Amino acid sequence: MIELLALLFGLATLAATAWCPPRLTRVLGSLLFALMVGVVSRFAFGVHVALLAAALAAVLALRFFPPLVLRRVVFLVPALVLLIFSTTLLMYRAPGNPFANERATSPQVEAALRAQYGVPKNASAFFGIYMRRLLVEGTLGPSIKVQGRTVEELIAPAFPVSVALGLLALILSVVIGLTLGIFAGLKKNSLADHVSMALALFGVSLPSFVLGAGAMIVFSLWLGWLPVAGWGSLRHLVMPAFALALPNAAIIARLARSGMIEVMQQDFVRTARAKGLPESWVIARHAMRGTLIPVVSFLGPAAAAIMTGSFVVEVLFAVPGMGQWFVKGAINRDYSVVLGTAIVYFGMIILFNLLVDLAYSWLDPRVRSSDA
Amino acid sequence: MLRTLISAFLVIVASLAVVGLTLSASTGRRAELRFVNSTEPKTLDPHLITGEPEGRIAEAIFEGLTRLDAQSLEPVPGVAESWEITPDGKTYTFHIRTGARWSDGHPLTAQDFTYAWRRLQDPSLGAEYAYIMQMVRYSEAFNTHEAQASALEGPIQNALHELGHSSPGAVPDKAVRDFVSKQHLDAVLKGTPNAALRAFLLRGPGELTQGELGVLATELAREGQRRRALYQEAKLHFGIDGGVYAKDEHTLIVELVAPTPYFLALTAFYPAYPVPRWAIEKQTGRNWFLPANIVSNGAFRLAEWSVGSRIHLERSDTYWGRSDVKLRSADALPLENQTTGLNLYLTGEVDWLPQNTYPAELAQDLRKRPDFFIGPALIVYYYRINVTRKPFDDVRVRKALNLAVDRDVITREVLGVGQQSAFRLVPPGIRGYTPPDTGISYDVAQAQKLLADAGFPGGRGFPKFGILYNTLETHKKIAEVIADQLRRNLNIDVSAYNQEWQSYQQSTRSLDYDLSRAAWVGDYEDPNTFLDLFTTNGGNNQTGWSNLVYDRLLEAAGNVEEFVAAPAFILQHASRAPELERLADAVRLNKEAPSRLKVMAELRLELLGEAERILVHDEFPILPVYFYVIGDMVKPKVKGFYTKLRGSDGATRSNLRDLHPLRSIYIDEHPSPRDGAP
Amino acid sequence: MRKSPLQLALQRVLRNRMAIGGASLLIAITLSCVLLPPLLGLDPNHTQPSLRNEAPSARFIFGTDTLGRDVFARVLVGGRTSLLVGIAATAVSILVGVTYGAVAGFYGGKVDEAMMRLVDFLYGLPYMFLVILIMLMFSETARGDALPVFLALGLVQWLTMARIVRGQVLTLRHQEFVLAAELIGASDARILLRHVLPNVLGIVVVYGTLMVPSVIILESFLSFLGLGVALSWGQLVADGIAVVNPIRSYWWILVWPSLFLGATLLSLNFVGDGLRDALDPKART
After folding, report:
1. What angle, rounded to 10 degrees, do the helices at C71-107 and C147-173 form?
2. Does the structural domain A159-320 have CATH classification 3.10.180.10?
3. Closest to B281 (Cα-Cα) out of B115, B62, B63
4. Per-residue model confidence as pLDDT tens digits over B193-220
5. How many domains does chain B fold into?
6. Which residues of chain C does B481 touch, with a Cβ-Cβ cutoff of 8 Å?
7. Which residue of A has its CA nearest to B538?
8. How many CB pairs under 8 A join B and C?
9. What is the count of structural domains for chain C?
10. Which domain range does residue B390 map to?
């Protein structure tokens, strides 16, 4: 009950951060930013450097940061705390626990393990231990199912792998998706339109495990062009990057086509055409921006998801990325792993949504985002 | 426009740079032998390992007093070069070889074993496999008695107190039973010599008066004190001068509670491996077994462990028998997708696919290939029946279910690679064990009759129920076929449903199911590893079934001498009482050590056979489905890999546990075609 | 006689041949999934292991699977689940997402910021646990039932819909016709419903038709992890891919469910495009 009240209070606080007055935002934002920089740099460089970095960050933020960024920071820190709290409640509500095994564990053994890993039976107590670890000890806690390693030791090698693969997939999906979508939108209802949309549909309606498994048979086993699975060279990247990119490319294509059709009917495009400007100039200069808005809205969360890895693609192609930890953490009830991945994912979401909001005002100057 | 293009270009270039950097950071010298390990090992601490993927690696980097010979899987000298056993079979003297060394150069001594075996039993370590070595004197007391004493003195007394207060007069039977099961009293009082408590555990239904309650409280407290004293004694002696202790640096003495025929095989199993005290105590977390910290004593050393990519092993240059090890290096790949594993094998990227690393659906087609090897396994697949739910509390219903399932359809058509239909619990092939009569066969008419007798003629009135399985393709297929058979043979409403692993475990543990899938892999080649499951309140029983005679039979098998001294209760209930009596007499009269041990071993297996008979002839808390086979796919160039065993007695046997020590594997780049046993 | 905008829209849809074709196919598939199994007495779970892996024939027009079950029956019954899950989850997310996104985008400023912050927060929650919990709440009562799945999926999917609609409304908010409506004193609700929403319907329909396949695929992914329902197109496709490999290939187990899935999604898209064009307020010529 108290936990539920705490949750509601937290949500209200989050919404309330929108009304934080500018002055307070500047001070609070700088302090919280310093705290974040401190905690993060502690993982990498130790306490002394972290203190120094935090002080430097506070000054820099106070002096130079635009309000837009500071507002995000004021939201981000309480949101992270609330995220950890609510995820903990969710995890403790789910059946099972990280110490459950195929063979029965005796109560004594379980008690010993709970004490050793700092996983008490009560959700709030675990939340306390976790926050303490994060802020005071500077660790994301030990993984229970991958013994001997902390969560940061699991994420540190996996995250760059997912980012690398994700970036490639992102570029592929944007290039393929926009090309198909704009082309189809311009030639609306032509054969070319239907063909490219059918292609897009093909991409979105095949699950990535089917797409990936099919590609593996064709390109590795029959043709022998690409290695089956693994990580370590550009050739290893081709199939997983396409498997990740195609479903997103398909969505982008459809969104872009629809946006294109919409924009081409707008008055400013008609005006530009009436002025006798060349068609390509009209498209590039005027229509492009309008087309991109729905695509960009979609790309924010999608990019965060792509860059933090996909379980299916990683398992299929044996890529040592981060996506596996989202699923394994949940399946194994490895609480610290779940929280660690949730924090990283959340950070990415905030980052990309910030970029999206920046892109909005760039794409359409009339959008007076509250932050501008 | 130009600016946009340039910035887009810059973004792409920067991204590709990130990709390049990440790729160049990952390295990988290809090992001589590459094999697929079904999942990432949870740990490589030999005392905390429980699974196959971990075992495969641990077996390569550590070595026990004995090791299993690759061709016979019989124990041969490992760290110990020889040993003597006393005539009563209870004391072993191992002679540690002088050449044995740790990977950091430390000589390996008897003290390393006393430390390791004490650590395994240390309650604060929480080792799951501690029980497997508890025939060693003092170990059980050291491992369990303190916690049991605390429970007896604290929570159990409190609960008893509340029980007394809950009703002013006599305490109703149900409340007493709840108390017993909630406090795990059977487990806490396991093996107690206290007559009053034994009588309490064995009592029939009935109320408990306040007076009896008082006596019980006193006896429980006394038992608590007794256990605490035993723990104190064990703590003082175990690993120091009792149970297991070092006579000198090269002589290790092990004392057993009862003679154990398979003890030398156990000393080759990972719970009995030595561990390096100094390396463990240097670390604060559980991470001494990571490549940077580990000190080991096996034929290989752990050179690299990249989570999600591979474990890389290299031949050890400190191992005493390094001249016999031909394999230079090995990679274990943690691949969770079986199709990917198979594709890697087909393109020559890996050389060995052990059981469970290729799609089971393909086994029927794969077995036609010359590089696929299949043989029986020590694994049983069965369904638990929740006897605490109606109508499954009726033995006739349980038997009817057992009779209405055509297992041959499953083994021949669904699985189809030589699995055997199971009408018992213990897989065939265990030496010396004669399986008992079974009441299970495929007999729809009898099943329908039994169901009618139980009050459901023609299946009418039978409640709708579910078969629970954890999500996996094979489990799903079997559950759907069995549900379909029950539906049509008995005219009852059955559906199969799945839960993800943790939810499934929670459901089975809390008896929140009707029928649920289960399988058991034998830890060692003995019926006990299977029959032990169904003792009352056993952690892996999970059916709610409890049978007094069954419990006594397993206790007797665990300590045959005790049974011989007081056989009355069991003989009264046994189906083959005369045979048991004859063997008991033979043990009693025979004073000559070796042949006495032999008769005792025979008697022990007879007792276990009696126990299995209760499960599959009388009571049916389970529905056995089939006995596994295991299949390995291995390239012809991999030699020293034995799919058929040849024992020291010259007999050929199956590799029941799919064990292939890396120590004797080697690569022959120009192989001749392989026959069954290279 | 003057026609209402709705009648006009309907007229335009009817004139679009692709949309009509799509709609007919969609109706045909839905009807056969709903009606054929009981009419023909098809049992998707009847196992006949001795007849397993049979190629399509007169007796089993789509062949049999690895347990000898009729693939035709399984495709039809699986279709019920997939259609229900896909459409219901999409409906839930459209309803919630459009309302939420439109309000946020329309009012803008602090309200928009607060509402979007909550969406950002909800994105961060590990949705696997949400799904596990929702499934669990229903597990004893609804074995293999689709209800908890679409609830769980709808609850996750509305977030992106809300962001897309909000982004679109933010641009529309400052267009002349909205400002004009404001000037003549129209109420907020009226402006939203009459002027803003019609202009975002296009993108909503397009994204909605895209959401149906992603939900169906997500559902198969959940089944793959053991969290989903038993018999659906996604699940059948996943089963199918397991038996197509270089060792052997029983193509019909994969092809039929894929074909039905593909045909449904394709026709759904044509209907969506038709609707989009018909509802486009600028195309009233």
Report:
1. 30
2. no
3. B115
4. 888 888 887 777 778 888 888 888 899 9
5. 2
6. 47, 49, 67
7. A104
8. 68
9. 1
10. 376-627
